[in-house]
Specification:
Length: 144
């Protein structure tokens, strides 16, 4: 299975022309990957040149789109499941909340779909009786 990367956009220089091998070295990927981006995935190269050059004004939006494709924001009451590769609701009876030394709350439970353990951290400022994982609603809280 191919690894999914989040590409750091701050590495891209403003108004700069990159060769395929420079992009590959910049992100630690194979030049074949960059050639595939150009031939199949829509990365625009500078026309009329013998070598494959890509301008930074084309590279940045392309990588922004690839980064956005890898994100799966969780809705309220969901925790990201690494096995399902998407946000899932945890089984309410399996939820446990533990206060950490840095005042955050670690909530753990089981995924409804695959029964894998799922975890999330909640800021102490956001932890209230209205939170979907609060002890009064679901999970008993354990001291640190």
């Amino acid at each position: 299975m191919a690894r999914k990367l989040i590409y750091n956009l701050r590495l891209i220089r403003e108004n700069y022309t990159y060769a395929v091998y420079e992009i590959a070295k910049l992100y630690g990927i194979s030049p074949d990957t960059v050639f595939r981006w150009i031939s199949r995935e829509g990365l625009k190269r500078i026309p009329g040149t013998k070598k494959y050059f890509v301008h930074s004004s084309d590279l940045r939006p392309f990588l922004e789109q690839k980064n956005a494709r890898n994100k799966h924001p969780c809705a309220e009451g969901q925790i990201y499941c690494c096995k399902c590769h998407k946000p899932q609701k945890p089984v309410p009876a399996s939820l446990k909340a533990k206060r950490m030394p840095n005042k955050t709350i670690r909530v753990s439970g089981r995924c409804e779909a695959c029964n894998t353990r799922v975890n999330t951290f909640v800021s102490g400022k956001k932890w209230s009786e209205c939170h979907p994982f609060h002890p009064d609603r679901n999970a008993p809280i354990e001291p640190p």
